[in-house]
């Protein structure tokens, strides 16, 4: 009995030891589990409350909750189960996290307010006040000052409003605002400097927007010179701006993203430290038309390359590329347009020769002498024709480059002197740079173009656009 009792007591002691050892393992495991950090403020529910995110073979996902360490499963298309678990089980912690996240976002927005929020709205309010407040309008009228209202759909009108406000003396403007009881709209010297930088940065953008929307003049030729001028102007502004240097850098990146194809053809490449995400329009600007069109416009020719900040070697390569593209396009256009005319001429010649042969067929069958038999009716070899055309095109390019008249209609005014380039210009310069002419077709057509009155096809739209842009020529 004593032996049995001793065995039982020893077994009990072993059980106690095993229990204590197992309990110690559980405690250690709980210590290893990550705990919830109340000071952390993540942007999503998953980042804030969950860990060990896993994706299973069936497509579902799972994660462990930091608060209760339970496993939550959900589908791959949403985070609904994660959010539902937190909102139901841990409402108190969820509300605290939401409040902290909202305050974090508000603090960030106050620290990084945009120029539009800081000054654009204030300038817009001053412009509205000049039209709503009789007293303020009278003060401005005495000083011969007018402030146009900005249009939300036209950003260049907002730029024009800012420029008009900057034309007013700061002391005079602030005195007028205080007199009408709007001291909250008073501008400081720092505000004026920032607005001046803003107006200077977007000056070329506004001019390009206005010029490229023209109807009765060539606009496609403005694209390459405008993009290149704006790019180097932004680099200059970035070096000289005191407050808006980061805005200039952002705009430079945007130019590379949108017009990267054109800039690359001019050998203007982005810095290695810039994160460029090419837009869908980037490669479209690699088209030859953007380099050919400025040369055919008398305002530019090759001046936009020569007067740019490109290196001398780059200028030489770019001008040679433009001349080669012009030569190729003019020669190709001559070949396609003359195929039909050559066929017509050949058919007329053969008809004449057949009639002559019919008249001679009644004569006796012997060899007769004929006038001009050495060269009449013989075709000029195509190789000689092509060489003559090539020389003519090269001469036209070199002569047109030396023209002193800087008129956009130069190629049309001297179409007899430059027949090959004129034929190319009629094809190239008719392309609009923006969709403004097409939009104006709809705005001017009125009720006639409504769906319940008529059906507008692609062909009809192109004809209407052509007529509207060239109505002065008809």
From TrEMBL:
Its main location: nucleus. Keywords: Metal-binding, Nucleus, Zinc, Zinc-finger. One of its GO terms (cellular component) is nucleus. The keyword Acetylation does not apply. InterPro entries: HATC_C_dom (IPR008906), RNaseH-like_sf (IPR012337), ZnF_BED_domain_contain (IPR052035). SUPFAM superfamilies: Ribonuclease H-like. Residues 1-12 have a biased composition (Polar residues). Residues 1-23 are annotated as: Disordered. GO terms for molecular function: protein dimerization activity; zinc ion binding. Pfam families: Dimer_Tnp_hAT. This is HAT C-terminal dimerisation domain-containing protein. It comes from Rotaria socialis.
């Amino acid at each position: 009995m004593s032996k049995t009792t001793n065995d039982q007591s020893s077994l009990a002691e072993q059980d106690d030891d095993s229990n204590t050892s197992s309990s110690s393992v559980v405690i250690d495991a709980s210590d290893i589990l990550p705990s919830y950090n109340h000071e952390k403020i993540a942007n999503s529910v998953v980042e804030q409350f969950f860990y060990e995110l896993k994706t299973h073979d069936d497509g579902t996902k799972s994660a462990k909750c930091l608060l209760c360490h339970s496993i939550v499963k959900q589908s791959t298309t949403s985070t609904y189960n994660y959010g539902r678990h937190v909102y139901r089980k841990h409402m108190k912690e969820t509300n605290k996290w939401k409040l902290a996240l909202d305050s974090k976002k508000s603090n960030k927005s106050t620290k990084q307010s945009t120029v539009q929020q800081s000054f654009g709205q204030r300038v817009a309010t001053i412009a509205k006040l000049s039209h709503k407040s009789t007293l303020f309008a009278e003060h401005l009228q005495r000083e011969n000052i007018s402030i146009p209202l900005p249009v939300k759909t036209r950003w260049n009108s907002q730029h024009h409003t800012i420029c008009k406000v900057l034309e007013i003396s700061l002391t005079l403007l602030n005195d007028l605002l205080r007199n009408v009881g709007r001291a909250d709209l008073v501008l400081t010297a720092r505000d004026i400097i920032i607005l001046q930088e803003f107006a200077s940065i977007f000056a070329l953008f506004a001019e390009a927007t206005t010029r490229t929307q023209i109807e009765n003049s060539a606009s496609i030729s403005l694209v390459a010179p405008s993009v290149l001028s704006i790019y180097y102007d932004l680099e200059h502004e970035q070096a000289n701006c005191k407050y808006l240097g980061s805005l200039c850098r952002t705009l430079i990146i945007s130019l590379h993203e949108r017009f990267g194809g054109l800039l690359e053809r001019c050998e203007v490449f982005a810095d290695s430290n810039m994160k460029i995400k090419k837009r869908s329009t980037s490669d479209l600007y690699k088209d030859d038309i953007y380099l050919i069109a400025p040369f055919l416009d008398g305002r530019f020719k090759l001046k936009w390359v020569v007067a740019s900040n490109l290196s001398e070697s780059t200028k030489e390569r770019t001008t040679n590329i433009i001349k080669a593209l012009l030569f190729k396009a003019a020669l190709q256009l001559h070949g396609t347009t003359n195929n039909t005319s050559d066929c017509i001429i050949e058919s007329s010649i053969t008809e004449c020769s057949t009639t002559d042969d019919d008249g001679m067929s009644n004569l006796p069958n012997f060899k007769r002498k004929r006038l001009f038999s050495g060269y009449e009716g013989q075709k000029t070899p195509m190789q000689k024709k092509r060489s003559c055309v090539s020389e003519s095109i090269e001469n036209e390019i070199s002569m047109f480059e030396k023209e002193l008249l800087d008129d956009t209609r130069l190629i049309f005014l001297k179409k007899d002197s430059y027949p090959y380039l004129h034929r190319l210009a009629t094809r190239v310069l008719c392309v609009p740079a923006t969709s403004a002419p097409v939009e104006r077709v709809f705005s001017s057509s009125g009720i006639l173009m409504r769906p319940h009155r008529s059906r507008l096809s692609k062909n009809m739209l192109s004809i209407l656009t052509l007529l509207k842009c060239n109505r002065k020529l008809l």
